[in-house]
Specification:
GO terms for molecular function: ATP binding; ATP hydrolysis activity. By secondary structure, the chain is an alpha/beta fold. Helix content is about 40%, strand content about 25%.
């Protein structure tokens, strides 16, 4: 079964083309990574697929629905973690996650909140105001919010931002476990090591275009980086630095 399918998906902002002719297919159960330099169109792709933006042209289907004509149905069926999004500063993590659970009509909200707080190690700050949390703690709360209602598909923009190395490993374990149950994860990143370690399939974007796709399993980080540099093109030193 296909979880995400796009055909010539394009988004322009005036004279700027942020995403051009994106055509891809993501199977259910995949841990798909959209890999590319900053400004390559990764965030725009997620915003189009989650109904936050309408395309200039082209089509998309997410969990069998059209994000343009059925945006609420798509959002109800998925989880989303945008890059650099924080819980409201005037709420505690418990209050924020309870609100998310109620909006999502989630059963056993308190049990789920406690479970994610234990898994992502923020139980000690569940009842502290979010304004006093560290960046890493806020990121963990937002990760919990994306998965709280146990969706079949989750979109994450830069999943490991602001996390220390130990917590990065913990989050990687949780993401892999989520997909091992048949769920689908679509993540965007400009970190080659994250794509090499986590993903079952990678699409490489540059200047708004999908320039290559590959299966990174069996590839080392160095091999995927070399492939990335080759596909992005230009000066190898510049391409590697952008990665």
């Amino acid at each position: 079964m296909v979880a995400i399918e796009t055909s010539d998906l394009t988004r322009r902002f005036g004279d700027v083309t942020a995403l051009s002719g994106l055509s891809l297919s993501v199977e259910e159960g995949a841990l798909f990574g959209l890999l590319g330099p900053n400004g390559s169109g990764k965030t725009t792709a997620i915003e189009l697929l989650t109904g936050q933006l309408e395309p200039t042209s082209g089509t998309a289907r997410v969990v069998g629905r059209d994000p343009v004509t059925e945006p609420m149905a798509v959002r109800e069926a998925i989880g989303i973690l945008p890059e650099r999004e924080d819980p409201p500063s005037f709420l505690t993590p418990r209050e924020y996650l309870t609100f998310v659970g109620e909006v999502r009509e989630t059963a056993e909200i308190e049990t789920r909140i406690d479970g994610w707080a234990d898994r992502l190690e923020f139980a000690g700050v569940l009842d502290a105001l979010a304004t006093g949390l560290s960046e890493g703690e806020r990121q963990r709360v937002m990760l919990a919010a994306a998965f709280l209602h146990d969706p079949d598909l989750v979109f994450i923009d830069e999943p490991l931002v602001n996390l220390d190395p130990i917590m990065q490993e913990r989050v990687k374990e949780q993401l892999a476990a989520y997909c091992s149950r048949g769920n689908t994860l679509f993540l965007s990143t400009h970190y080659v090591d994250v794509a090499a370690e986590l993903c079952t399939h990678v699409g490489i974007v540059d200047d708004g275009e999908l320039v290559a796709e590959c299966d990174p399993r069996g590839m080392s980080e160095e091999e995927l980086l070399a492939y990335f540099v080759e596909e992005v093109g230009g000066d190898p030193a510049v391409a590697e630095a952008r990665a």
